[in-house]
Specification:
This protein has 292 residues and is an alpha/beta fold. It is built from 11 helices and 7 strands. The chain binds adenosine monophosphate and manganese (II) ion (3 copies).
Length: 292
């Protein structure tokens, strides 16, 4: 009889999105795809939302896949949006459930403002257009607007939409105050999980602000950083492997897969973590839900 062990797992994919946030596949479709791509440990990490966790875990087990609960919380740090992944928490814990509900709260109004701004540059009906892509009414996101702008031929792909319309300084960008770093880390920890800085190379921080982010994150009890992710280049794997060691953080790995049509990195299709790092899933061994 072979007892499963977290330390034997290599192909962990601990970051992706379903229709419960801004992905295009259901939790069930993702579980099957992850298994088919050779994933050995999976987590669904919808933005500011854990409504898909029970489905994801059941689907993972139906596919024979070990599962860790997950989410990706939107945070504002030094005027920049930062994402904090939470892994291995209790999805029914009140502090986390309430914190996420509060974080989702402003999205509807923000979306109306984005639509008004886009209308001012000649793109009409964007709110209604984006809504057609929304699977969860509380989770309207820039990604849904991006899909509408591709559908209507304004841009060729979602990357072009973000470049031309939906990022800082562009006509459809509405600044937003998300959760505070300390609160996001606390919600995850109180629910028994581990907090992880998502895709650190993607933030527009100065080197000083980035150092402050890592320092404060650790001070609040954050324990991990994504090193190998679909949104990092191989050079960036090296940079953040060094940062992980400098700050005593464990390392995570996840594709950040959203959609077969849009995402450059598929589930499970990433290089392994550099060997000198401690994988987050070793420390989360007792939080893994193993299939029967
Ligand atoms: P929101 O939470 O509404 O601000 O939307 C953020 C989401 O938009 C991210 O999780 C990504 O899925 C997507 N996104 C953000 N920036 C970009 C970008 N530059 N290119 C493509 N997708 C992006
Ligand atoms: Mn997203
Ligand atoms: Mn993210
Ligand atoms: Mn993500």
């Amino acid at each position: 009889m072979h007892t499963p062990s977290a330390t034997q797992l290599v192909n962990a994919d601990l970051h992706c999105h379903s229709v419960v946030s801004d992905g295009t596949l259901t939790p069930e479709e993702l579980a099957v795809r992850a298994k088919g791509n050779g994933v050995e440990l999976w987590s669904l990490t919808d933005h500011d939302e854990i409504g898909g966790q029970h489905r994801a875990r059941a689907a993972a087990h139906a596919a024979g896949l070990p599962y860790l609960t997950g989410t990706e919380i939107s945070v504002t740090f030094a005027s920049v949006t930062v994402h904090i992944v939470g892994l291995g928490f209790d999805p029914d814990h009140p502090a986390l459930v309430q914190g996420l509900a509060q974080t989702r709260g402003g999205r509807g109004e923000r979306a109306q403002e984005m639509s008004d701004q886009l209308a001012a540059v000649g793109i009409k009906g964007a709110y209604e257009g984006a809504l057609k892509y929304v699977g969860n009414p509380e989770l309207i996101s820039r990604t849904h607007f991006a899909r509408f702008l591709v559908e209507t031929g304004v841009c060729h792909d979602t990357y072009e939409v973000f470049r031309r319309y939906l990022t800082e300084g562009k006509p459809g960008f509405v600044p937003h105050r998300w959760a505070r770093l300390g609160d996001a880390v606390r919600w995850i920890r109180e629910a028994g999980g581990m907090a992880v800085i998502a895709h650190p190379a993607r933030y527009a921080h100065s080197p000083t602000a980035e150092y402050a982010l890592f320092t404060e994150f650790v001070a609040h009890g954050g324990q991990g950083v994504e090193v190998v992710t679909g949104s990092h280049s191989p050079d960036e794997y090296g940079t953040y492997a060094d940062m992980a060691l400098e700050f005593g953080l464990m390392a995570s790995r996840g594709s950040d897969f959203h959609s077969p049509k849009e995402s450059h990195t598929d589930l499970g299709k990433l290089p392994p973590l550099p060997g000198k790092l401690s994988p987050v899933w070793h420390a989360l061994a007792d939080r893994i839900h193993w299939p029967n």
